[in-house]
Design brief:
single chain; two-stranded antiparallel ribbon; 5 helices; alpha/beta; five-stranded mixed β-sheet; 31% helix
């Protein structure tokens, strides 16, 4: 099965803000960015099924690309940053934050998730999808979800995971 994963476009939050699962709005450049994503997605159409994170930034892009009927799935949300949601990264200076920045692939955020937790829920979604009789599926989601899907699909190794993060409005393709 071919899975086409689409990352949401830029968001309307100050640079350096930790927004995770906060339901933030898209940037004022949404129309231009979404048009580029829609054009890049066209060669992959049609899809047997389309799924999306229920967060606004993913749903709006799915709608713009002609998939307003995308099936929402909470497992496609970005990693929960817990107590750090909507805080500037520059403010995260306590001892735990320093440890997290050094070991973000293992440690959870305070009151939030760890990368292994995110990876497990994205893997559960893909395992379930694998049981279906689809040829090609689209998934509108977030950077962390695409990183986890890329690991699941064997595109890169864990040590290189975030060096392979797809940019806003970008597309990643895996086979499962």
């Amino acid at each position: 099965m071919e899975i086409i994963l689409i990352r949401h476009t830029s968001v309307d939050v100050p640079p350096g803000t930790c927004y995770g699962q906060s339901d933030v709005d898209v940037a004022p450049t949404f129309e231009q960015e979404a048009a580029m994503t829609k054009a890049a997605l066209a060669p992959y159409e049609p899809f047997d099924a389309v799924f999306a994170s229920p967060l606004r930034r993913a749903r709006l892009l799915a709608e713009y690309c002609g998939h307003g009927d995308a099936q929402p799935d909470d497992r496609l949300k970005e990693m929960s940053m817990g107590e750090w949601e909507m805080r500037p990264y520059a403010e995260l200076t306590d001892d735990y934050a320093r440890r997290w920045f050094d070991d973000y692939l293992r440690l959870p955020t305070p009151g939030g998730e760890s990368f292994p937790m995110l990876r497990r829920r994205v893997g559960d979604f893909l395992d379930e999808l694998r049981q279906q009789d689809y040829r090609r599926v689209a998934v509108f989601a977030h950077g962390g979800v695409l990183v986890c899907a890329g690991l699941y699909g064997g595109l890169f190794q864990l040590a290189d995971a975030y060096q392979n993060q797809v940019g806003y409005g970008g597309i990643e393709r895996i086979e499962i």
